[in-house]
Amino acid sequence: MEYIDNLPPMDLMRSEKMTFVQLIIPVESAHRAVSYLGQLGLLQFRDLNDGRSPFQRTFVNQVKRCAEMSRKLRFFKDQIHKAGLVPSPNPASEPDIELEELEIQLAEHEHELIEMNSNSEKLMQTYNELLEFKMVLQKAGDFLVSSGNHAAAQETELSENIYTNDGYADSASLLEEEMQPVPSNQSGVRFISGIICKSKVLRFERMLFRATRGNMLFNQAPADDQIMDPASNEMVEKTVFVVFFSGEQARIKILKICESFGASCYPVPEDLTKRSQITREVLSRLSELEITLEAGLRHRDKALTSIGFHLSKWTNMVRREKAVYDSLNMLNFDVTKKCLVGEGWCPVFAKTRIQEVLQRATFDSSSQVGIIFHVMDAVESPPTYFRTNHFTNAYQEIVDAYGVAKYQEANPAVYTIITFPFLFAVMFGDWGHGICLLLGALVLIVREKKLSSQKLGSFMEMLFGGRYILLLMSLFSIYCGLIYNEFFSVPFHIFGHSAYKCRATTCSDAYSVGLVKYRDAYPFGVDPSWRGSRSELPFLNSLKMKMSILFGVVQMNLGIILSYFNARYFGNSLDIKYQFVPQMIFLNSLFGYLSLLIIIKWCTGSQADLYHVMIYMFLSPFEDLRDNQLFWGQGVLQVILLLLAVIAVPWMLFPKPFILKRLHTERFQGRTYGILGTSDMYNEEEPDSARQPHLDEFNFSEVFVHQMIHAIEFVLGAVSNTASYLRLWALSLAHSELSTVFYEKVLLLAWGYDNIVIRFIGLAVFAFATAFILLMMESLSAFLHALRLHWVEFQNKFYNGDGYKFKPFSFALFTDDDD
C-alpha cells in the first residue's frame, strides 16, 4: 500500500486541489485588479450579495451603461448586416480608449445612423410615391383616352380629379392648376385613379361593387415595376386602377374604401398636354431623387464600414467591462467603505500567479495600499477543476454530461478515453467502415483552425467537438474489423492462407460439402473460411456473446477497484471493508467464475454446456457435473463461491449503518456542552460566507434505508449489468448482417446483370445505404449504447457525480452569444 501511495499523481485522475481565498482590495485599484484576474482566468468569485436584487448592488449604474452600449453595438451589427456589408474580423489597430470616450463615440454614431436612416426613409417614401404617380399617369391615361373617344359625342366632362394621398405634398405644387376647384355637374361621371397591391385587387373590386351597388366602372392594369413596401422592405407587385362613378355619396364611399385597403390615390388630368407635362416633371424629380438616394447610401455604407473596422474591438471591450462590473457586484464593502472584500476559489498551483497579478494591479493603479490576499478554511465542498486539452476535453464532456465529479473524486474520463471508443468499435467492427470514419475525422482535425473560427450549425458543431473521439473510434473500428475480418462485410486473406480446405479434392462447393482443418489456425482474427459456411452464425454468435461477457466483467471490476481507490484516498475504511470487499466477492463469485469457465472452455476445446453449469450451480449445487466438468475440483469450488456470494449480501447491508451509529454516538456525547461554549464563534462572519459550518444531524433510519437500497441495487445490478453488456454482441451481429444484406442483395445482385444502368443504380443504392444507414445511423446507435454502458454499468460502481464545475472569471471563456 505504501508503494501505491508513493506513486506520482496521474493527470486527470483527480481534480486539481483547490483553496478558498479572501481578497481585500482598495476601491481605487478594484477595477484594474478584477480586470487582470479576468485575463488570468483562474479565480472563481463567490457572490457575497446573493440576497440582493441586481438593482440593489453597488455598481448597478455602470452595468446599465454597459448594457446600453451593448444595445448600440447590436444595432450597429444589425445595420451592417442589413446593408450587406461584412464587419472586419481583425479589429483595427488603434490606441486604447476609455469607457467614457467609447460611450460618447457610440452615442454620436447611433445618432448619426438614426438620422441617416430617417432621411433615407423619407426620401425613399417620396421616391416610391413619385414612382407610383408615374405609373398611374401612364396606365390611367390610356383608360382616359379610350373613355374620351367613346364619349366624344357627349357634352359630359370629367371636371374633378380626386387626390387623397397626404404624403405627396412635394408634387402637389406641380398640379396647382389641376387642383383648383372646378364647377362640376353633380350628376356627371367622375373618376378616381390610384394604385393598390396586386393581392388586394379582387377584394377591392368586390367591395367597390357592393358599396356602389354596381353603379361604377372599374378598370385595372398591372404596374410595370415592383415597388418597395416601407413596412416590410420587400418588393411587391401593384396594380393601377381607375374607378368611374357618379354622385357625391359614391365618391365618399370609394375614398373610404381606398383608405381602408391601403390604396394610394393620385390626380390624373384629362388634358393630354397637361398629363405629358406632369409626367416629364415627375421623371425629372425621380432622376434627382435617385442621385440623392445613391449619394446617401454611399455615405451610410462609408459610415458603417468605418464602424465595422472597430466593431469587434468595441464589442470585446464593452463585454469585458460589463463582466468586470458584474464581478465587482459580487464583492462587499468593508466597514470603512474604503475597501472591497471578495471571496472565491482558485487552484493551489495558481496562488502565486494570482498574487503577482494583484501586485501588478496595485502598481498600475498607483494605490498607496496593497491588495491583501490570504487563504481561509471553508466548510463547503470546493468546485471541481480538470485541466484538459483539445484531445481530452471531449471525453471529459461525456463524463460531465452524466454528472460533474465530486471534488478529488476518481475521474472516469481517464479510462473513458480508451474504453469508450473500444466498446464502440466492438459493436461497429468493420475496417472498411472504420476507414470511412477515419477520413472524416482527419478532415475535421486537419481543418481544425479554420473550423474553430467559424460559426457552425448544431450538427457540425457537435461533430467538430467530438473529432478526437471520432478519430479513436475509427482506429478501434479498423482494429476490431481486422479481428472480425470484415471489409464492408467481405472477408480477405490478409494475414495468410486459411486453415481449412475442402473435405474432398473433387469438391467444388466447400460451403455445402464442408471444410476440414489441415494447418495451424489463422494467425490474426477470424478465419475467412468461416464466411458463408453453415457454421458461420453459430460460431460468431458464441464468440461475440462470450467476448461481451468478458469485457463487461472486466469493466465492472475496474469500476469496483476504483471505488477502493476513492475510499482509500478519502480515508474511508468502512467503505473498503463493507462495500468494496463484499462487492468484489459477490461479482466474481458468480460472473467472475463464469468468465473463468469461458476462458477454460476456449483453451481446452471442451464441449461443456455453460448454461447448464450456471443454472444448476444455484438449483443443485451438490449435483455431479459429469460431462460439464471443465477441471478437477469444480464442484467444490462452485459450492464455496455460492456460499461467498450469499454471505456478501448481508455483509454489504448490515454492518456499515450500525458502525456509523456507534461512531456518531461516541463522537457527540459532549456535543451539547460544546455548543453552549461556542455558540457565538461564527456571529462575526459574513452571512453568505463559505466558512459557516453546517451541522447535519445523524438519522439512523435514513442511513440504513440508503445502505439497503445501495446493496439491493448492486445485487440486482450485477445480473442486469452483465446482461446489458450483451448489447455488444447484439449490435455487432446486427451491423455485420446489415452489411452482408446490402452487399449481397444490392451490389452483387445488380452486378449480376449485364446492364450498365442497373449496375450504376445498384452501386448508388449500396453507397447510399452504406453512408446513411451503416455509417450514420449505425454509428449513432453504437455511440449511444457505448455511452449507456459507461454511464450506467461502469460509473455507478464508484462515481457519485454530485460535484459542481469550477467556473473562473475569465475573458477567454466569453463567446459571441454572451451579452
Automatic annotation (TrEMBL):
Residue ranges of the TM segments: 422-446, 467-484, 547-565, 585-602, 631-654, 756-777
Xref: InterPro entries: V-ATPase_116kDa_su, V-type_ATPase_116kDa_su_euka
The record, for Pfam families, names: V_ATPase_I (PF01496)
Q: Which UniProt keywords apply?
A: Coiled coil, Hydrogen ion transport, Ion transport, Membrane, Transmembrane, Transmembrane helix, Transport
Localization per record:
Membrane
In its keyword annotation, does this UniProt entry include Transmembrane helix? yes
The protein's role, per its UniProt record: Essential component of the vacuolar proton pump (V-ATPase), a multimeric enzyme that catalyzes the translocation of protons across the membranes. Required for assembly and activity of the V-ATPase.
Indicate the family of this protein: Belongs to the V-ATPase 116 kDa subunit family.
Protein name listed in UniProt: V-type proton ATPase subunit a
Which source organism does the UniProt entry give? Fraxinus pennsylvanica
Q: What is the lineage of its organism?
A: Eukaryota, Viridiplantae, Streptophyta, Embryophyta, Tracheophyta
